TrEMBL record, chain A:
Gene Ontology molecular function, alphabetical: NADH dehydrogenase (ubiquinone) activity; oxidoreductase activity
Enzyme superclass (EC): oxidoreductase
Main location: membrane
Annotated localization: Membrane
Biological process, per Gene Ontology: ATP synthesis coupled electron transport
EC code: 1.6.5.3
Entry protein name: NADH-quinone oxidoreductase subunit N
Signal peptide coordinates: none
Keyword line: Membrane, Oxidoreductase, Transmembrane, Transmembrane helix
GO CC, any one term: membrane
Superkingdom in the source lineage: Archaea
TrEMBL record, chain B:
Keywords noted in UniProt: Membrane, Transmembrane, Transmembrane helix
TM helices/strands, residue ranges: 6-23, 30-47, 53-75, 91-113, 133-158
Protein name, UniProt field: NADH-quinone oxidoreductase subunit J
A molecular function GO annotation: NADH dehydrogenase (ubiquinone) activity
Entries under Pfam families matching the protein: Oxidored_q3
Domain of life: Archaea
Keyword Transmembrane helix carried by entry: yes
UniProt keyword annotation of Transmembrane present: yes
Gene it is expressed from: nuoJ
PANTHER family: NADH-UBIQUINONE OXIDOREDUCTASE CHAIN 6 (PTHR33269)
């Protein structure tokens, strides 16, 4: 049994208790006002992130383990994702303060963000398929509600129903994969499953591959891999922009945690040749995402397609993981960076929506003069998404493409991944640059400076510091990502 | 004997699942759903898992399906549904389903599953309970949180702010 004071259990208790308590406070409290719930949620998230950092600094966290005999493991890999997810949770919560003012049911809104964050964090700590699936559901169910939060807005309803149907489908596929894995090995513990898979005879191997294929499809829906991405732009566009931030930066990254825990470890252990399949998905995903983004005229839709493209970049590192030692490290680094960049971009859009009520790209002309801080935050996050030096996105992309070239010693096609990545980055700069041009170089309806939402300003300042700070001095975070890479030795394998 | 029972159950389960999806009347649809869920319980009985079968019957057929039936009967809103149907999408869906079923079916039938030993004893439900409280205990805690979040979310989505505001104005 896992210890009561271990990081995942304590995080569940802190966030879960507060998350359930907020709606109760709402019932007991007479006066209206949304900020108090946001502040309580923020307090819980800050306490949680403080606890994770304390556990890491006091060395209570074990080095990254691939397996454990429990359902949860308190390791650095999980803590890395916990920090990324909690940062996203904090950015979403703070960014929502102004957005939620005057809207219905603020208490439930913040409570669901907390509950969803628990799910995202627990996915990364899970070492058992059942635990992983339950954490996956805890992450998903609150976000289905949050996506449909604007009940009177038909596009929000559409977003919620699409997201819910595809989410339910992906859960069904995952549980089918789990049931095949359990049927073949008699266990749901990931270690037992992989060891069991490695002992299968050749006649049973197709079933094991079917199970892994189902995991790829099931997790791929949430991550937005092509061809499982069709729901994503509608869902991100229709949901409140703050929730789009949580979806793009949070749930998507938690999906990568699940991929790493299950598929990549399984592929390495089984010595399967998934690398080529994943590489093809990576290239198709980034190309489709970026090409579709160019055609968009709506900011949230454009960012949604851009997040599909970014999933492709992250997949580069994962697909060369069995060969290149820096593959997983680069992917983890980009996951952390992309969480902050994408959350910042969506929160900036939320600020624009709160102030101007528009998301169309023609309507944000002259934003640089009207909302200077939001525009600056958006610009920097977009440049970081494109991978312009000296911002943090540049370093993580450099590592990703470097890992692909590094893998070229063994796999002759691996350097083409880097070529595709560089070409796609150039392509993405076209539409990012277009947004920036609209904001700064075209005359808007007026040049009068508007009052920017304070909470959005706070998020923008944090993300500018984060993006530029890591861009200038990336070493500590790269080291942290390195320590979070699971140790590969001692894996069972069939050759 | 088992084969014929299996076939009958399959026809019942899949047939009523299709009826549940296709039929326009929500009441008949939910009754068909009850049949599907009972059919699944039958599969569990065939698989020597009577404990799971009883759960399937009491939870899914006994409470969830009945709850759906009650909701449908209490909220008669069938008139607001418009029939929007795209023939090509429908066929595309059927083709996709057939391709997937053939693919997965070929893999399963082609594998060595048939040679596997099937004489294992029925699952001991005491062991299930024990596992829930030891190995899976964190999952059980998280399950409670899932239920809490589902209830909170469902109540929020179902809540009508306009009615409450109207009552306050009175």
């Amino acid at each position: 049994m896992i210890e009561f004071t271990s990081t995942p259990i304590m995080l569940t208790l802190i966030l879960g208790a507060v998350g359930v308590l907020i709606p109760v406070i709402n019932v007991a409290r007479k006066e209206k006002g949304s900020s108090v719930y946001g502040v309580i949620a923020l307090g819980a998230l800050l306490a949680a992130i403080g606890f994770v950092v304390y556990q890491i600094l006091t060395k209570h966290v074990t080095p990254s383990a691939i397996f454990s005999s429990n359902v949860l493991v308190d390791d650095t890999f999980g803590s890395f994702f916990a920090i990324a997810m909690l940062i996203v949770g904090i950015m979403t919560t703070v960014g929502s303060f102004n957005y939620m003012r005057g809207r219905a049911n603020p208490a439930v809104y913040y409570s669901l963000i907390l509950l969803s964050s628990i799910g995202m964090i627990l996915i990364a700590y899970s070492t058992d398929l059942v635990m992983l699936f339950i954490a996956w559901e805890l992450m998903s169910i609150p976000t289905y509600v949050l996506a449909g939060y604007l009940k009177k807005d038909p596009s929000s309803n559409e977003a919620a129903i699409k997201y819910f149907l595809f989410g339910a489908l992906s859960s069904g596929i995952i549980i089918y994969g789990i049931s095949i894995a359990y049927g073949l090995t008699g266990s749901t513990n990931i270690e037992q499953v992989i060891v069991g898979f490695s002992k299968l005879g050749p006649d049973m191997m197709p079933l094991a591959i079917l199970a892994v294929g189902m995991f790829i499809a099931g997790f791929g829906f949430k991550i937005g891999l092509v061809p499982f991405h069709m729901w994503l732009p509608d869902a991100y566009e229709g949901s409140p922009p703050t929730i789009a931030a949580l979806l793009a930066a949070g749930t998507k990254k938690a999906g990568f945690a699940a991929v790493l825990r299950v598929i990549i470890m399984g592929a390495i252990a089984l010595n399967l040749h998934w690398a080529f399949a994943l590489a093809v998905i990576a290239i198709v995903t980034m190309t489709v995402g970026n090409l579709a983004a160019i055609k968009q005229r709506n900011l949230t839709r454009m960012l949604a397609y851009s997040s599909i493209g970014q999933a492709g970049y992250i997949l580069i590192g994962l697909s060369v993981a069995p060969i290149s030692p820096i593959g997983i490290q680069a992917s983890l680094f980009h996951i952390l960076n992309h969480s902050v960049m994408k959350a910042a971009a969506f929160i900036a859009v939320a600020g624009i929506v709160t102030t101007l009520g528009v998301t169309h790209i023609e309507k944000i002309k002259g934003l640089g003069k009207r909302m200077p801080i939001t525009a600056l935050g958006l610009t920097i996050s977009l440049l970081a998404l494109a991978g312009v030096p000296p911002l943090n996105g540049f370093w993580s992309k450099l590592m990703l493409f470097g890992s692909a070239i590094d893998a070229g010693h063994t796999l002759s096609w691996a350097p083409y991944l880097a070529v595709a990545g560089v070409l796609n980055s150039a392509l993405s700069l076209a539409y990012y640059g277009w947004i920036i041009r609209k904001m700064y170089f075209e005359e808007g309806e007026s040049n009068k400076r508007l009052k920017e939402p304070k909470s959005v300003i706070a998020v923008m300042i944090f993300s500018i510091i984060f993006i530029v700070g890591i861009g200038v001095y990336p070493d500590p975070v790269i080291e942290f990502a390195k320590s979070a890479v699971p140790i590969m030795s001692g894996l069972p394998s069939i050759h | 004997m088992v084969d014929s029972v299996f076939l009958a159950l399959s026809v019942l389960t899949i047939g009523s699942a299709i009826v549940a999806l296709e039929i326009r009347s929500l009441i008949y649809g939910s009754i068909a759903l009850m049949l599907t869920l009972s059919g699944v319980a039958g599969f569990f009985l065939l698989l020597d898992a009577p404990f799971v079968a009883m759960f399937q019957l009491s939870v899914y057929v006994g409470s969830i399906a009945v709850l759906i039936l009650f909701t449908v009967m209490l909220v008669r809103r069938e008139l607001i549904f418009n029939k929007v149907e795209d023939k090509r999408r429908r066929y595309a869906g059927i083709v996709l389903m057939v391709v997937l079923m053939l693919g997965i079916g070929t893999i399963i039938i082609g594998s060595g599953l048939k040679t596997m030993d099937t004489n294992s004893s029925a699952v001991d439900y005491k062991k299930i309970g024990e596992d829930f409280l030891t190995y899976y205990s964190p999952a059980l805690i998280v399950m409670a949180l899932i239920l809490a979040s589902s209830i909170i979310g469902a109540m929020t989505l179902a809540r009508r702010e306009d009615v409450i505001d109207g009552q306050r104005a009175d």
